[in-house]
Structure to design on (118 residues):
């Protein structure tokens, strides 16, 4: 048992060390940012405007996604409350059913006839 636990921790430490080390190495291997010149600024202005439009569309989409998720949270909470209420009501019905004496079978003469209902 101890060997399995030790092997598990060694594997976990190896995976986490690889992930942590890889993130540090990848941060140092990225090229430094390039500075822009004046000739590139005109071309970048139109690119900047299109990027702003794209960012606005993305922000609008994200807002609607957030609103939808919030609605799901509210509806899920309401369903949780309703389920708890149904559970409590079911428990009460079981208690009432257990307190009631068992029903006696009804004889043929005590049953109501269908002709009397009309």
């Amino acid at each position: 048992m101890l060997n399995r636990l030790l092997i598990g921790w060694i594997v976990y430490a190896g995976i986490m060390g690889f992930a942590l080390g890889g993130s540090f190495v990848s941060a140092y291997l990225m090229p430094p940012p390039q500075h822009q010149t004046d000739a590139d600024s005109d071309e970048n202005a139109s690119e900047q405007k299109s990027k702003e439009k794209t960012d606005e569309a993305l922000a609008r989409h994200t807002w609607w996604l957030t609103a939808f998720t919030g609605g799901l949270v509210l509806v899920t909470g309401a369903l949780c409350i309703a389920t708890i209420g149904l559970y409590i009501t079911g428990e009460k019905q079981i208690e009432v059913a257990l307190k009631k004496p068992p029903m006696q079978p009804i004889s043929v003469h005590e049953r109501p006839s269908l002709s009397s209902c009309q």
